[in-house]
Amino acid sequence: EDQVTQSPEALRLQEGESSSLNCSYTVSGLRGLFWYRQDPGKGPEFLFTLYSAGEEKEKERLKATLTKKESFLHITAPKPEDSATYLCAARLEGKLIFGQGTTLQVKP
Amino acid sequence: ETGVTQSPTHLIKTRGQQVTLRCSSQSGHNTVSWYQQALGQGPQFIFQYYREEENGRGNFPPRFSGLQFPNYSSELNVNALELDDSALYLCASSGGTPGQYFGPGTRLTVT
Questions:
Q1: Average pLDDT across chain A, whole number
Q2: For residues B4-17, average pLDDT
Q3: Cα distance from A49 to chain B (closest Cα, Å)?
Q4: Which positions in chain B touch A34 (Cβ < 8 Å)?
């Protein structure tokens, strides 16, 4: 069965304390691994798409990487405004299969 | 460029009723996907429409149905509402690029 699992479920960091979020996937026919940010009560905001193992993408304090079984979202020197739920999703044909998300809280 | 919009923002319905949710896709996008997101969970794929035809469906019963119009806007209809249908319903549009861009969602509460 196609599945996406994220860990940890929740993460608390101090401002400036770098960390990584994990996304493990078991899917056949992967057509891209997506990362989204979701603020409470809002729709997911697109961050990155990764297609092949070894690929990396960066945006401000965020860097996403991809292996054959996992993706990581590295957060460097986070700020309180980075607090949100981060979702990863595997694309199969046209649909996205989401993990349950990691809720990040960054304290000043 | 206009982003994805959804209406209404919030909705309260009674068990057994029917509901219609609406979505306007981002300019230039011809594909619309609908997702259901329960509290504390990731979104779950309901179905996708491409050029007015259903183009894939998730594990949702037939009482979940949809339409796409010539201007690529879309509707999600849910009949015989159940308490478990309470969720955030998200619409995402795409076209030309692999990314799916989400609207703000409609919060449906079934009592």
A1: 95
A2: 97
A3: 7
A4: 99-100
Judge whether A76 and A102 are in contact, CB under 8 Å: no
* CA gap B48, A96 in Å, rounded: 10
- The per-residue DSSP string of A4-57 comes to EEEE-SEEEEETT--EEEEEEEE-SSEEEEEEEEE-TTS--EEEEEE-STT-EE
Q: Which of B60, B100, B101, B108 to mutate to test the interface with A (most CBs of A within 10 A)?
A: B100
| pLDDT over threshold 90, residue B2 | no
Indicate the length of chain A as a whole number.
108
Inter-residue contact B50 to A94 (CB < 8 Å): yes
How close does chain A come to B90, measured CA to CA in Å?
Answer: 7
Quick: pLDDT tens for B81-107: 999 999 999 999 998 777 889 999 999
Kindly state the DSSP code that residue A76 receives in the 8-state scheme: -
- For residue A9, the chain B residue with the least C-alpha distance is B40
Output DSSP code: residue B104.
-
pLDDT at A24 over 90: yes
